Amino acid sequence: MEEISSLYTSHKKCPICGAKVDFTKIRTRSVRLLKQDSDFCPYYEGENPILYEAVICPECGYGSHITTFEQVNGIEKARTREKITPKWHKRCFLGERTYDQALEAFKIVLLNLYEREAVRSEIAKICLRIAWVYRYKNEDQLENKFLEHALNYYKMAYHEEDLTSGKLDEYTCMFIIGELSKRAGHYNESLQWFSRLITCYSDPLQKSHISNKLIENTRDIVQEVKDLIAVNKGEAG
Predict the structure, then answer these.
(1) What whole-number percentage of the chain has pLDDT above 90?
(2) What is the pTM of this model?
(3) Residues 120 and 160: beta-carbon distance below 8 Å
């Protein structure tokens, strides 16, 4: 019996040029999560779905995360046609992806987001995905560079965006900022964000909006951050 591939082709209509965009997806039943880092970076057995989240139109160069591909307004369409398409060299991203091909696709999405002046949370998400791929490749310097970019954009998102209606809620955003601050070595700032999240959880009006798992992880990491601060003070002394 022929083995069914874990990869298959799906398609969407490009919201910029109207072309049919074929892209590769992974069959849900073939995905098995092995573990997850504290900043939500996942590790899978077999194909990694993260590598296929960036979808690029081969005709006009429009790129987006797969979950927001059709969510582009008139102003963003005009900016894409003006800033991206004239410089685009047609190429295809269909099929199995290496880490480097995934990085290229994500960076095209990131360029699209910059040129469209997209919301900060979406830019942060793509910067974080790029950092994860560099982590898979064990390229620490580039991983840390994009973690810093993600941290800065998540901070802007927290202060500037309405986080009550999208997939990223304000409490998860606090957690990510705290976690990325820790990874960047900003331990006191990390502790402030985690403490803020724990304070929100103690408020009966907010508690029901925060998952128990998120708070459990927060409390574990708070102790880790306190230990790191103590170590740093000891080394300084």
Answers:
(1) 88
(2) 0.93
(3) yes
